[in-house]
Specification:
Layout (H helix, E strand, L loop, with lengths): L20 H8 L3 E5 L2 E4 L1 H20 L3 E3 L4 E3 H7 L1 H4 L6 E3 L5 E4 L4 H7 L11 E10 L14 E11 L2 H21 L4 E5 L10 E7 L5 E6 L5 E3 L20 E4 L6 H6 L8 E8 L2 E8 L3 E2 L1 H8 L4 E3 L2 H8 L15 E4 L9 E7 L2 E6 L1 H4 L4 E2 L3 E2 L13 E16 L1 H5 L4 E2 L5 E2 L2 E8 H11 L1 E2 L2 E2 L10 E5 L5 H16 L4 E4 L5 H11 L3 E5 L1 H4 L3 E6 L5 E5 L3 H14 L3
Parallel strand pairs: 3-7, 15-18, 18-21, 29-30, 29-31
Antiparallel strand pairs: 1-2, 4-6, 5-6, 7-8, 8-26, 9-10, 10-23, 11-12, 11-23, 13-20, 14-15, 14-17, 16-22, 19-20, 23-26, 24-25, 27-28, 31-32, 32-33
This protein binds one RNA strand through strand 8, strand 17, strand 23, strand 26 and helix 12.
RNA sequence: CGGGCUGUGGCGCAGCUUGGUUAGCGCGUCGGUCUGGGGGACCGAAGGUCGGAGGUUCAAAUCCUCUCAGCCCGACCA
């Protein structure tokens, strides 16, 4: 390939709307362009990387016995109605109507379609199966952001396992776990497997593969003393005991004019750990009270996971007032009996607490939770903070911002049952296969690589996914000897199966060096009169800046050697 | 959906507060000359319904109203 013939529109400055590093660099490097929010066009360089990432994924999926399919992106409504997700997916699913008036959806995932295909599985002898595809998914994200990290249209490798029993599912799950570690390792992504919430897809065991990056959207709790790692959405910690303050025989009203916040109340002599935080939420139509210790954060996802709530949102000020008679800032659960009260275990056994009195500008002190509050259900729903103690080893927990690069979980029989899948077992009994579901976003992996592999000059691609493995930079294109050497090296490298690009543009060397670094090609060979005269060429490693002089005659061999080494690297 | 912000040649910006000639600047692009190992210099040129609609006014990029789009922070997910 010759650079002069390719469409590689590099930009010196990133467009103002690009903020995330992957977004800025992929735009500047001419890898992609934004069509609209959450939808990106892949340009030749970007598509080459995308395809190479897909290829790594394919190889590892095939290695665990996966079989590649390609399913439709557009599905009839009835398919999703059968699983119940036509309703439960809500606004996240793109829906449209065809000319006959039939309802259609653009697939967000493909459990239903694969399960439909699995109707043709007839016997336990047909199991297990691992089926996968790399197909476009559509999700009407409320807020696309951070370049390729969160988009509305993206390629995902999704695979589905079908097993006769739980032991089989465990094995398929473990195979995927291994395959994912292999994939991320080859992509040079340091992905940590963490316990996760299974979210909208439903299921039991759920593991996310997380790559530390400030551009991410998830917080991962990790223990410094053992291998405990979990998404904050389901992380737990050992709570340091707090000595109760002296109580009283009954709640004591105290005037708190103008005090609306935990912080203000703390300044008035009631430390946060001795306060009860009272939140009012509307959950599937009903108001509920949610109680936590004053210094603990509420994590909605934990609540949703534990209660199975479909819709939840903070209650509006007016409905709070009509239910409790006060505004946020003075709310409490003492004496409340008509609303369901959820409390976090951090409050269990506590007394001498302060909380709102459900009367503006008044709080209650000396609260004994067991005595004064009619808790309906105790639920762990607090967010873990940096520095807390690990509940299994007592070590210190850290919280790290991460990109969710992959997610695997056990679905169970929910979909196979809904779609009417069954096979006969060895005894001739009808059995519903159990499923697993496993996803990796291809574009997101690409973004994650850029987020973790760049420097001031640009991207630094791992060899196995680089758009090109080596660039031959001709310093002076009208120097005939240079071009002759470059063209021969190019042809020989092509013959050796190396992805090589010949930068034959008639431009300033500085521009060509800068472009090759921005685009992130792992190896650069600089070809110019200075070196040619000595029979030497300069080989530069993008990642390290290391340079070595290579005799012209040894170039192809040396480059081939380095490329093969690079391709084989695993983290 | 709540909060904050931005739309002016391909990219980055100025101009807007206080309306007033032909809307500027840098980069990029095109032609040319000289150059040639880190975004070079000079000469010449092309390219803009100032996001859109409506309004105020003798006059609107600038003021008003509506609207569309994009970005960031929160609630949701590969």
């Amino acid at each position: 390939m010759r650079w002069s013939n390719l469409f590689i529109p590099t930009l010196r400055e990133a467009p103002a709307e690009a903020d995330a590093i992957n977004h800025r660099l992929l735009l500047r490097g001419g890898f992609m362009r934004q069509l609209q929010s959450g939808h990106y066009s892949m340009l030749p360089l970007g598509w080459r990387v995308h395809e190479k990432i897909g290829e790594v994924i394919r190889q590892e999926m095939n290695a665990i016995g996966g079989q590649e399919f390609l399913l439709p992106a557009m599905h009839q409504a009835s398919l999703w109605q059968q699983s119940g997700r036509w309703e439960s997916m809500g606004d996240e699913m793109f829906r449209l109507t065809d000319r006959k008036g039939a309802d259609l959806a653009l697939g967000m995932t493909h459990e239903e379609v694969f399960a439909t295909l699995s109707l043709e599985l007839a016997s336990y002898r047909d199991l297990p199966q691992i089926w996968y595809q790399i197909q476009w998914k559509f999700r009407d994200e409320p807020r696309p952001k951070a370049g390729l990290l969160r988009v509305r249209e993206f390629a995902m490798k999704d695979s589905y396992s079908f097993d006769i029993d739980d032991a089989g599912l465990d094995a398929s799950f473990d195979r995927h776990h291994d395959a994912y570690q292999a994939i991320f390792s080859r992509l040079d992504l340091d992905a940590i497997p963490v316990q996760a919430s299974s979210g909208a897809m439903g299921g039991s065991a759920s593991v996310e593969f997380m790559v530390a990056s400030p551009a991410g959207e998830d917080d991962v709790v990790q223990c410094s003393g053992c291998d405990y790692a979990a998404n904050v959405e389901r992380a737990t910690a050992a709570l340091a005991p707090v000595a109760n303050r002296p109580g009283s025989n009954a709640p004591e009203p105290i005037p708190t004019p103008g005090i609306r916040t935990i912080k203000a109340l703390a300044e008035a002599g009631h430390p946060p750990e001795h306060q009860i935080k009272t939140l009012v939420y509307r959950v599937d139509g009903s108001l509920v009270l949610i109680l936590l210790r004053g210094d603990h954060a509420f994590l909605e996802q934990k609540f949703v996971d534990a209660t199975g709530a479909i819709e939840m949102a903070p209650a509006e000020a007016d409905e709070i007032r009509s239910a409790l008679g006060a505004s946020p800032g003075s709310l409490g659960a003492v004496g409340v009996s008509d609303l369901t009260i959820y409390a976090d275990p951090g409050l269990e056994g506590r007394s001498g607490m302060t909380t709102g009195a459900n009367e503006d500008d008044v709080h209650l002190a000396g609260i004994d939770i067991a005595r004064d509050i009619a808790v309906d259900r105790w639920l762990d729903m607090r967010g873990i903070a940096e520095g807390e103690a690990c509940s299994s080893c007592g070590g210190t927990l850290t919280v790290t911002r991460c990109i969710e690069a992959g997610h695997i979980f056990k679905l169970g029989r929910r979909y196979s049952e809904a779609m009417g899948v069954s096979v006969l077992d060895a005894e001739g009994e009808s059995r519903v296969p159990t499923m697993g579901s496993y996803g990796i976003g291809v574009g997101r992996a690409m973004a994650a690589i850029v987020e973790t592999h760049h420097d001031d000059a640009g991207m630094i691609w791992p060899m196995c996914v680089a758009p090109f493995e080596v660039v031959l930079t001709v310093v002076k294109v009208d120097h005939e000897d240079s071009m002759a050497v470059a063209e021969k090296a190019h042809d020989d490298l092509v013959a050796a199966g190396i992805d090589v690009i010949l930068d034959d543009r008639d431009g300033r060397p500085g521009v060509k060096f800068a472009d090759s670094e921005l685009v992130g090609i792992p190896l650069r060979v600089t070809i110019g009169p200075r070196g040619i005269d000595n029979g030497m060429l300069e080989l530069t490693v993008r990642a390290t800046g290391d340079q070595e002089d290579v005799p012209v005659d040894d170039l192809v061999e040396r480059v081939t050697e380095l490329v093969h080494e690079g391709r084989a690297v695993r983290l």
